[in-house]
Design brief:
It comes from Croceibacterium salegens. Keywords: DNA-binding, Transcription, Transcription regulation. Pfam families: HTH_18. GO terms for molecular function: DNA-binding transcription factor activity; sequence-specific DNA binding. Helix 3 runs antiparallel to helix 4. The protein is elongated. It folds into 2 domains: 184 residues, Jelly Rolls, CATH 2.60.120.10; 115 residues, Arc Repressor Mutant, subunit A (Orthogonal Bundle). Strand 7 and strand 8 form a beta hairpin. The chain has 11 helices and 12 strands. The longest helix has 17 residues. By secondary structure, it is α+β, with helices and mostly antiparallel strands.
């Protein structure tokens, strides 16, 4: 059945399916090809939930009964997983896992799990490029080297994060909805938690010697960014314009500027917006007009990023300079 909430941009509706028989678990991870087996005479039950967006897919299950899931995961996507609740005897690749365990599957790798009654898990599948971009949005680095091979993480999830996710996904499977508990929100929250778990902070400038070609790469990228700052800029496009790979592009920005390409672009746009906010009163533009001029349409996110960089929200800058301009106009000093 379809969940009753307003869909968020970029997401389809979430789907909730009751688990009535062992065959229902063939789709326990959306996009995978799973062989399933019932391991005891206990009644099979629980629920499956999915959300398939443009660039990522969430799957979560609460399983009643003892089952085995074995098969190949999506060929073109990386899959990250969290064991939200793992009763004793829960196995992944025949290794016992506890609640809070996290796992990485590279594209097309084997999902081999034995779940005990009461298990709850969550997975998200997305491309390596998209994962790097989302990590960069959080000012973190998460590339193939950082992810490593298909594996169970040696570190359990942060206990506070695990407790929050268990509470939210427990409500999700129980059908307890509210505006404050939008399904897309908890999907994004879980993904952020997984990224923060696996990613690292960018290296500090001067931590290592600069590659001689990095300056050339960054200069080409900066030129392209300046020419396209008012339009969407993907990492793939930026890498092509810089005549390099995405991975080397990240390394060059991180080594020379101490930040990711996305952070550089975001901060440059914020500075352009601030410049226009301080001179917009003569042309009647609003904060929304100015933000959209530079390709920024999510005003809530703009306010947070702007405050983080400048210590105030855009409207405060706009209003302060509007008052100043009015005063100077009365003095015949502001056009």
């Amino acid at each position: 059945m379809m969940i009753s909430h307003q869909p968020f941009a970029g997401f389809e509706e979430w789907i909730r399916l009751p688990i009535m028989a062992i065959e229902d678990l063939q789709h326990a991870v959306l996009g995978a090809q799973l062989d399933v087996a019932q391991l005891s005479g206990d009644e099979i039950g629980g629920s499956l939930m999915f959300s398939h967006g443009v660039d990522k897919t969430f799957s979560t299950a609460r399983i009643d009964g003892n089952v085995s899931l074995l098969g190949s995961l999506p060929e073109t996507r990386i899959t990250l997983g969290i064991g939200l609740h793992c009763p004793p005897g829960t196995l992944l690749w025949l290794k016992e896992v506890a609640s809070g365990s996290t796992s990485v599957w590279l594209s097309g790798e084997t999902y081999d799990a034995i779940y005990r009654s009461g298990s709850t898990y969550l997975t998200v599948s997305l491309t390596e490029e998209r994962l790097e971009e989302l990590a960069a949005d959080l000012d973190l680095v998460l590339d193939a080297k950082q992810l490593g091979e298909t594996r169970i993480s040696s570190r359990p999830l942060d206990p506070a994060a695990l407790a929050l996710l268990r509470k939210l996904y427990g409500r999700l499977h129980s059908g307890e909805w509210s505006e404050a508990l939008a399904p897309s929100y908890i999907g994004e929250l879980a993904l952020d938690v997984m990224i923060e778990h696996y990613a690292r902070k960018p290296r500090i400038m001067g931590e290592k010697r600069h590659d001689v070609g990095f300056a050339r790469i960054v200069n080409r990228a900066r030129t392209y960014i300046m020419e396209h700052l008012d339009a969407p800029i993907s990492i793939a496009e930026l890498a092509r314009a810089s005549f390099t790979s995405r991975r080397t592009l990240y390394r060059a920005f991180e080594d020379l500027l101490g930040e990711t390409p996305q952070t550089y672009i975001r901060n440059l746009r914020l500075n352009r917006i601030r410049h226009d906010l301080t001179s917009a009163h003569s042309d009647g533009a609003t904060v929304t007009d100015i933000a959209s001029r530079w390709g920024v349409f999510e005003l809530g996110r703009l306010a947070g990023d702007y405050r983080k960089l400048f210590g105030e929200v855009p409207s405060a800058t706009f209003n302060r300079y509007g008052t100043l301009c009015a005063t100077l106009t009365n003095m015949a000093l502001c056009a």
